[in-house]
Design goal:
52% of the residues lie in helices and 13% in strands. With 615 residues, the chain is α+β, with helices and mostly antiparallel strands. Strands 4-3-2-1-5 form a 5-stranded antiparallel beta sheet, sandwiched between helices. The chain has a 5-stranded mixed beta sheet with strand order 13-12-11-15-14. A 3-stranded antiparallel beta sheet has the order 6-8-7. A hairpin with a 2-residue loop joins strand 14 (583-588) and strand 15. Helix 9 (168-176) runs antiparallel to helix 10 (182-194), helix 20 runs parallel beside helix 23 and helix 26 packs antiparallel against helix 27.
């Protein structure tokens, strides 16, 4: 092809500088265009001076030779893009069985180096059709072991292929030695730890690393104690790897913890993956008072650290102290939003005896306090909105009046916008329908009102108070205690307590619904021209000709032996608003009864003696 292109130069159709590029394009048959991407050269026409090229979305595209030489970049037939076009199935097979060969092919396609993102873009989705992350993790493990590849610690840096083989230990130590700063050094050291099984001489590596870290740690122990602490952990793990002994006078974790500092501040500067290790070293440094210090700092750390603190306290038998501290902070409305966020996320049965409506009141207070102090974290607010079950669970055991107060507090709170308030209020109404009128501003419909005697209303209120203040809290403690016994699958005490919880909560909901609708009365001055609530009706049983009397009283008043019936009963519903001489019919226990009203008078029975109608 070179001769033909040179003839075109003589005739003036192309310039001499174009020849080499055109020869490469014609020979390889593959090219790249900055806008259209990869192309395959299908024909070379030297008579009309043009290429025919297939680009993605532009098959059979013709291009003038001179323009092609200026705008196209020749790529080798071994380039990954060319291989994808010519033998995609072969690359897929390579991806499945020869990770290193495929990565080498990609790296060579890009001059011997490419970032992870570039490798992914070259292979996904045509070659790697499944889980890229899983495939790359497997490939990366092989790359690190192979002496021809340099795998950087940072994703933004390129993976490099080198013809000369270098051992993994030599490569990692070559990164460790020039690393600037303690953090950079222990980061490389941590990578060496991950690849410990593939080191050729771990003892030599450990000795060099420990010596270098010991030289730098002292200058960080006061200015950056969290960095020093991380370096100490890595150093100690490296030492174990190499079978080294501690150096006399070296800085230890106990040295860091002996300094005057805030526990929470230091721990927050340590990566979350190291929190447990840091706390374990703190316990070793403060064997006598670590539990007290954790409880003291519980309200000043992040929710993640709250979880770590709580886990350690529970593991060491300090659940009662933890619950007492959390309960005190909640009741005093001094709990931080981060503590409450942890508590809301971790609301297991172990804490059921202190989970209640006061927790939500404390949440509102903490969020309003954060807002006043211009703290920008909305993590607790976002969690409350996202967890559909939180508010119903927290208010499940609350008294009706408390729920009403909580509803008002939520309506007035500046923490939530109007749409969010409506969402939260809807959750409260769904769990406690009795507060609907408070939220909507509408009164209950007349037909839903219950007429009751003062005595029966008092009994219901007493039962409700007994449920809320005694039975439900006692049941919560039983659940917490039973849960501590272990395996819940065989824990009969736990199952029984949870079943009783359902019964108690169901009864509480029933009482709330009834009490909010109840209207107490002493039944004085009833209408006597017709049968009404508060009257005694004298009637004749038309089947037996016997005289019978029915005293119609409140919804919860009933004593069949004395002829007292609730106005909601079938008998009373048949009698109401009827006059003397009217005949009525009603059904009791499947039997039909017919009666004629003879007379009506105001009831004279002593209401407190009336037995209460059970639901």
């Amino acid at each position: 092809m070179r001769e033909e292109f040179e003839k075109l130069v003589v005739t003036g159709k192309i310039e001499g500088r174009h020849v080499e590029t055109l020869v490469q394009l014609a020979t390889s048959g593959c090219c790249m265009h900055r806008s259209w991407g990869f192309g395959r050269i299908k024909t070379v026409d030297t008579i009309f001076g043009r290429f025919t090229i297939d680009f993605p979305g532009k098959p059979g595209h013709t291009m003038d030779l001179a323009f092609a030489a200026d705008s196209l970049k020749p790529i080798s037939k071994d380039h990954v893009l060319a291989r994808k076009a010519a033998d995609l199935e072969g690359l897929r097979q390579m991806a499945a069985t020869h990770h290193l060969e495929l990565v080498k092919l990609v790296l060579n396609s890009y001059g011997g180096h490419a970032t992870v993102d570039q490798i992914q873009q070259a292979l996904v989705p045509e070659v790697i059709r499944d889980d890229w992350k899983k495939w790359w993790e497997a490939a990366k493990r092989e790359l690190k072991k192979d002496g021809h590849f340099q795998v950087p610690l940072k994703k933004s840096e390129p993976v490099i292929y080198q013809a000369k083989e270098v051992s993994l230990q030599d490569r990692l130590m070559a990164e460790f030695r020039p690393a600037k700063g303690l953090k950079a050094r222990f980061t490389v050291a941590a990578e060496i730890l991950k690849n410990a099984a593939d080191l050729s001489n771990p003892a030599a590596a450990a000795k060099e690393i420990c010596t270098a870290l010991n030289a730098e740690i002292p200058s960080y122990q006061r200015t950056q104690p969290a960095v020093a602490l991380e370096a100490i952990f890595v150093r100690d793990e490296i030492r174990v790897l190499g079978g080294q002994q501690p150096t006399p006078g070296e800085v230890t974790s106990a040295t860091i913890w002996a300094q005057e500092m805030r526990l929470g501040t230091l721990l927050e500067a340590v990566p979350a993956a190291r929190h447990r290790r840091a706390l374990e070293s703190f316990i070793e440094a403060h064997p006598q008072d670590w539990q007290h210090l954790l409880l003291t700092n519980l309200n000043s750390v992040s929710s993640r650290l709250c979880r770590e603190f709580a886990a350690l306290l529970i593991e060491n038998g300090k659940m009662a102290e933890l619950k007492e501290a959390v309960s005190r902070l909640i009741s005093q409305h001094s709990a931080s939003s981060e503590l409450l966020l942890w508590f809301a996320r971790e609301r297991t049965d172990a804490f059921v005896d202190i989970l209640g409506p006061e927790v939500f009141r404390a949440m509102l207070t903490s969020m309003e306090r954060d807002q006043f102090n211009e703290k920008r974290s909305n993590r607790l607010r976002d969690f409350i909105l996202s967890d559909q079950e939180l508010l119903p669970e927290l208010t499940a055991s609350a008294e009706l009046e408390f729920i009403k107060d909580l509803t008002r507090a939520l309506q007035l709170s500046p923490v939530f916008d109007d749409m969010d308030k409506r969402s939260l209020l809807a959750r409260i109404v769904k769990s406690h329908p009795s507060v609907q009128s408070l939220i909507s501003g509408e009164q209950s419909k007349q037909e839903s009102t219950l007429i009751v005697s003062w005595a029966s209303l008092e009994r219901r209120k007493n039962e409700y108070a007994d449920l809320v203040h005694k039975k439900i809290p006692a049941n919560s403690k039983e659940i917490a205690i039973a849960r501590s016994y272990g395996d819940l699958r065989e824990n009969h005490e736990y199952k029984a307590a949870k079943e009783m919880q359902k019964i108690l909560m169901r009864r509480k909901d029933e009482l709330e619904s009834q009490i909010v609708r109840a209207r107490g009365t002493d039944f004085t001055n009833p209408r006597v021209d017709v049968a009404s609530v508060g009257t005694t009706v004298h009637a004749t049983n038309l089947a037996t000709s016997q005289r019978e009397s029915f005293t119609i009283l409140g919804a919860w008043d009933s004593d069949p032996e004395k002829g007292i019936v609730s106005y909601l009963s079938p008998v009373a519903q048949a009698l109401l608003n009827r006059k003397p001489s009217d005949e009525v019919e009603f059904e009791i226990h499947g039997a039909r009864h017919q009666h004629r009203l003879e007379s009506i008078e105001a009831a004279t029975i002593s209401i407190p003696e009336v037995a209460e109608t059970k639901p």
